[in-house]
Amino acid sequence: MNVLAIGAHGDDLESFCGGTLALYAQRGDSVTMCVVTDGRGRPKGDPDTIAGIRKAEAEASAAVIGARSVWMAIPDGGLWFDEPTRHRFIEVIREAQPDVIITHPPDDYHPDHKTTSRLVMDAAQVARTSNYPSRFEPHRAQVPVAFMEAERGIDFLPEDYVDITSVWDTKIKMLTQHVSQMMPPEKYDPAFVMPPVEQTFFYRYAQIVSAFRGLACSIPYAEGFRWWRAANRIVTRRVLP
Ligand SMILES: [Zn+2]
Questions:
Q1: pTM given for the model
Q2: pLDDT tens for residues 12-64?
Q3: Which CATH superfamily is domain 2-227 in?
Q4: Sequence-separated (6 or more) residues with CB below 8 Å from residue 87
Q5: How far is ligand 1, taken at its centre, from the CA of residue 4, in Å?
Q6: Which of 45, 66, 148, 232 is in Cβ range 3.0-4.6 Å of 17 for a Cys bridge?
Q7: In the predicted model, what is the mean pLDDT of the chain?
Q8: CA of 28 to the centre of ligand 1 (A)
Q9: Cβ proximity of 167 and 64 under 8 Å
Q10: Which one, of 203, 154, 160, lies nearest residue 178 by Cα?
């Protein structure tokens, strides 16, 4: 199976569906982790340098599970719903030829998350169009779009769950590749020493949300999902691992 996960920022995919991506990869599926923005917004420092660091961190995280990393490099906070950007999303989808697409829920908190979600949904539909001008073949398959967890779980009621208990350590290993995001946002510090991982905000956040989702299924850790109910998106088979 080809799995395409599209997150607005480096570390979003790890936070919201990293365990699920690890399970897909573990069972032999081909996983593409696409990050839309270039991360230049944080921590404070030369924006081009920060963007380069964020890209390397995203690649290191993808490498943990052997996923392909796609870096769209749109400036943080500079993501808009327009034709040129939608075209780039269509090309990402057509190139990956996914059997499932995972992205943010449409009403998540950050404009980059919301815009990513809308771009994915619209691009998935247009990617089917036979004569759309593209470098790649049309993507006509019946492809479900899953919405991953919302930021801090707010107003997100999952309708499907994945048991990530067996890959918990892998999810944390992916998250902790994003060292720059564990620094104080006031200044990039190349000499920053990571505290023990259990003391980081990343770990606490992931543990609380994953344990809460796991509680619904009476297991230690889970990730929750919702599905986009629309034509060409509904299938009768189990798609999640
Ligand atoms: Zn984000």
A1: 0.96
A2: 999 999 999 999 999 999 999 999 999 888 889 889 999 999 999 999 999 99
A3: LmbE-like (3.40.50.10320)
A4: none
A5: 17
A6: 148
A7: 95
A8: 27
A9: no
A10: 203
